[in-house]
Amino acid sequence: MRPYPLYGQDANISYDIMYLENNDTICAPATVPGTGAISVIRVSGENALEIADKVVKCGKPGAIMSAKGYTIKFGTVCNEDGSPVDEVLVSIFRAPHSYTGENSVEISCHASKYIVQQIILLLLKAGARAAEPGEFTRRAFLNGKIDLAQAEAVADLIASQSAGAHKIAYNQMKGGFSSELKEMRSRLLEIVALMELELDFSEEEVEFADRSQLNTLLDRVMKHISRLIDSFRLGNAIKNGVPVAIAGATNTGKSTLLNALLGEDRAIVSDVHGTTRDTVEETLNIDGILFRFIDTAGIRETSETVEKIGIERTWKKISEADIVLGMTDITRSTEQIREELDELLPKIDPDKQTLILLLNKCDILSPAGLEARRAFMTGYLASKGLQSVKLLPISAKRKEGIPELKDILSGSRKDKLAESDTTLITNLRHVEALTKTFEALTRVKSGLASGIPTDLVAQDIREALYYIGSIVGEISDNEVLGVIFSRFCVGK
Questions:
Q1: Cα distances (angstroms) measured from residue 287 to each of 161, 295, 300, 380, 441
Q2: Do the domain assignments include residue 238?
Q3: Is 143 strand, coil or helix?
């Protein structure tokens, strides 16, 4: 028997305990400290309106307490001695119609560190306490305003650095991923309920759960889960930056290319072979997609210890990359180019990685010479069954072909992002839970085929339900929640 927590009503006991321990009123700045026009201070909890009334004077006592939700009050914050601190606007939200599901106010003041600190101190003296990192979103989760997957998407939305990452996080925050999981879980719950009903009537040997329908359902659910798991590579790359390895022999222009892409001298460029001995990484946003470029050590035979370590790291980075930019110096002989490609191509998986071969130093060759090199490389790739590999003449030194390269890079990811209106997984915790769900359902399929007892099949379905539920927070524990919400900033 595999140990795992219960699902259903009993799984919510820990949430109730956590809520009882955190039902006081909290406050924190909701905007980043620094120079700006305004700052926002968020207050949430049962006594949020009462505490705000003690700190902000809005013309008459109890003005905030008596105000309707979704209204804004103008007022003045004063020190305990009556000296003014600032004139502010107070946005009022009444439970359950707020981000946290509790009574909440947001105080908009001028963006002075002193003013923000003074207002926070006054709120603390009035009965609030300082919020912990992620506590507002944690309360939104505990109060049923969002599920756990949506809560994690809030953190991803805040951290998004590109249009692609923003789109994925926003879709997850709106509940698209959660609704898919809940639908799958609902279908599996129906099946396991019927199976357990069979156990209650085991003496009569009745069959409530149609095995052929169950197999059809399992195939559909497992196909869906498999697609979600497979989407992690793309989703994670878009979230954290698509890894692009710049690889090739020494002195083919890899560091020059990195500098040309970034528009600055980030990597050392030299005519000396083996200058780059370690990887150099930089990110660049191209048309709303974040790319993480990795300049690698030049590939060659060497006895130099440090350079050999750099080349080993090159192979590792190539294996981890989604896109490989293979640099070739087309002024070299066709035999040299063939040897370099023979070394590079076996390290690339064409089913999982995109290879773009860059014909560098094209400005040195005549048009006829360039066409001859292109024809040679086209024939070489065809002999390897790699006709789909793109060939792009460039001059990294003169920055010729760089705009075309950027278009190819952004187009390759935008096409995948546009093709997939479906959910992309970006969270390692989610993909691990889905993998365990898939393994449990695989055992269900095997069990049905071999005719094992119903109670054992039901046990595996319950395990799958547990792992699906753990993603959206229908099943969780304090430790998991603590890890998740610790990634948030204070005030969110």
A1: 12, 21, 35, 33, 40
A2: no
A3: coil
Three-state DSSP state, 3: coil
Q: Which of 114, 99, 189, 91 is nearest to 146 (CA)?
A: 99
CATH number, residue 152: 1.20.120.430
CA distance 17 to 175: 26
Asked whether residue 469 is domain-assigned, the answer is yes
DSSP secondary structure letters along 343-388: HHGGG--TTT-EEEEEEE-TTTS-HHHHHHHHHHHHHHHHHTT-TT
Span 171-195, pLDDT tens digits: 777 777 888 888 888 888 777 776 7
Cβ contact 440:447 at 8 Å: no
**Do you find a cis peptide bond into 96, omega within 30 degrees of 0?**
yes
Q: How far apart are CA 28 and CA 124, in angstroms?
A: 10
Q: Look up residue 105 and give its DSSP letter.
A: E
Mean pLDDT within 377-405: 90
**Domain edge (last residue) among 391, 419, 447:** 419
Count of Cβ atoms closer than 10 Å to residue 185 Cβ: 22
The answer to whether the beta carbons of residues 63 and 97 sit under 8 Å apart is: no
Q: Which of 287, 277, 299, 282 is nearest to 243 (CA)?
A: 282
Overall domain count for the chain: 3
Sorting pLDDT into bands at 50, 70 and 90, what band is 60? confident
Nearest partner of 263 among 360, 406, 361, 391, judged by Cα: 406
